[in-house]
Specification:
38% of the residues lie in helices and 20% in strands. With 430 residues, it is of the alpha+beta class. It has two domains: 18-171 and 231-320, Bira Bifunctional Protein, Domain 2 (BirA Bifunctional Protein, domain 2); 332-429, Anticodon-binding domain (Rossmann fold, 3-Layer(aba) Sandwich). An eight-stranded mixed beta sheet has the order 1-5-6-11-10-9-7-8. The chain has a five-stranded mixed beta sheet with strand order 13-12-14-15-16, with helices on both faces. A three-stranded antiparallel beta sheet has the order 2-4-3. Helix 1 (18-36) runs antiparallel to helix 5 (139-156) and helix 5 runs parallel beside helix 10 (233-248). The structure holds adenosine-5'-triphosphate (ATP) and magnesium ion. Adenosine-5'-triphosphate (ATP) binds next to strand 6, strand 10, strand 11 and helix 12.
Length: 430
């Protein structure tokens, strides 16, 4: 046997029955997006490396050590598998002048790639629902996106007691500059606790040090000057307007002055939805405003706000709170005891499907048809509610037997092949 090949470390296959949970989740997301007026966009998985270096920021975890970058062997182009979705979407909007007619609300489901240490809830290929409101300045849209996250959590059946909303404001450039000076002073005064990375970032990006996951630095980070204390009137008004909406709809939140997010492009509102049930992989959703990104990527000044929601973590959270999404099961499993019945069975099942019934056939080659007993086993395992048994005697009378697989008290009965459209309605999953 040839040497077996394996998936790349940290990259997962999603197979049945788990894939059914993904589809269930995706259907909820699609419905949510329609409800809030967000349109779907799809952009390439691969972009120029320069896009992410410019967009996310040179001195960030993602750009410094997490990107899958490579040189196109055909032409030498420097390319990167996207580590997040926003930069690519903004690039597309600028390239196509898509905001010509006004602002846009868009969303995308994306695979993203980061070279991190794989563990539960942290992978090298993972998936996000990415939501962006482009061209909107007002704090109402920031609040709208926070509410969308809550609505999704509710739709998914996740109790609010298991999640919390953390909110902060990163202010504007001049406010961050004043804060930055104070931060550097603070960090310099505690140089003995800084790790190598923090020392390196002290001058280039001190704000990033606040985002450290190093426990030895937590106390020092806790005591650092808070950006909140450097915010001017306009930034505070923006934050208060967001809070006003959250208060009005009774959505609780915690102001977390340490919340800075791992990407450089944020300003004003930043937020995360966090759970205690997933250990240090507890952030299920994070986002914020990025009013400067369009310009940074060569576009016209365009205010915008967005968030990314980690699908794997959301599914882990669903499991942790005991929500088991329904698996995709057919309405009907067709049992075909002998090859002679196959053509009639196929034709009948096709009529049922046309009438909206989900039918799974017991497909098989001549040698591996399987006895009635093994076919019933497969029918049960499929989760179907009914079995149709295409036995020779019934077929000879123009009929087929129909048996409930869920309710033993419902007697088996026969139905007329010619009237499939009539009894189809009863089999359909209403
Ligand atoms: P963390 O602090 O956990 O590394 P992050 O701030 O890097 O998260 P974002 O860039 O905001 O994450 O991405 C949005 C969401 O994607 C996160 O809230 C999380 O749910 C999910 N996510 C981030 N990194 C991973 C990963 N390596 N594997 C799985 N999901 C991830
Ligand atoms: Mg990260």
């Amino acid at each position: 046997m040839a040497e077996s090949l394996r998936a790349v470390k940290g990259m997962n296959d999603i197979l049945p029955p788990e894939s059914a949970r993904w589809e269930w989740f995706e259907a909820k997301v699609r419905a949510l997006m329609t409800r809030y007026g967000y349109a779907n966009v799809r952009t390439p998985i691969v972009e120029s490396t320069a896009l992410f270096v410019r967009g996310i920021g040179e001195v960030t975890d993602i750009v410094e050590k997490e990107m899958y970058s490579f040189t196109d062997s055909m032409n030498g182009d420097k390319l990167t598998l996207r580590p997040e979705a926003t930069a690519g979407i903004v690039r597309a909007m600028i390239e196509h002048n898509a905001l010509y007619n006004g602002p846009m609300r868009v969303w995308s489901e994306v695979s993203v790639f980061r070279h991190e240490r794989p563990q539960k809830g942290r992978y090298r290929q993972f998936h996000q629902i990415d939501v962006e409101a482009l061209g909107f300045k007002g704090p109402d849209v920031d609040a709208e996106q926070i509410l969308m996250c809550r609505a999704l959590l509710v739709d998914l059946g996740i109790p609010m007691a298991n999640v919390r909303l953390e909110l902060n404001s990163l202010g504007q450039a001049d406010e961050r500059l004043a804060h930055r000076a104070a931060l550097i002073k603070h960090f310099e005064a505690h140089a003995e606790v800084l790790d190598e990375e923090a020392k390196r970032r002290l001058q280039s990006n001190p704000l990033r040090i606040l985002d450290t996951k190093n426990p030895a630095m937590q106390a020092m980070v806790e005591a650092a000057p808070k950006l909140m204390d450097f915010l001017g009137e306009v930034s505070l008004a923006h934050l208060n307007a967001v809070r006003g909406v959250l208060d009005a709809v009774g959505l609780e939140y915690r102001i977390n002055p340490r919340l800075v997010r791992g990407l450089d492009y944020y300003n004003l509102t930043v937020f995360e939805w966090v759970t205690d049930l997933l250990g240090s992989q507890g952030t299920v959703c994070g986002g914020g405003r990025y009013d400067g990104l369009f310009e940074q990527l060569g576009g016209k000044p365009t205010p915008a706000v967005g968030f990314g929601l980690g699908i794997e973590r959301m599914l882990l959270l669903l499991e942790a709170v005991g929500v088991l999404p329904p698996l995709n099961a057919p309405d009907v499993y067709a049992i075909v005891p002998s090859a002679d019945a196959m053509t009639t069975a196929m034709a009948t099942c096709e009529a049922l499907r046309t009438a909206g019934v989900n039918v799974q056939m017991h497909g098989a080659g001549a040698e591996s048809w399987g006895g009635i007993k093994s076919q019933f086993k497969r029918a049960d395992a499929s989760g179907a509610r009914f079995a149709l048994i295409f036995g020779a005697d019934e077929l000879a009378r123009g009929e087929v037997a129909c048996k409930s697989l869920r309710d033993a008290d419902v007697p088996q009965r026969t139905v007329k092949l010619a009237e499939a459209a009539v009894w189809a309605a009863e089999l359909r999953n209403a």
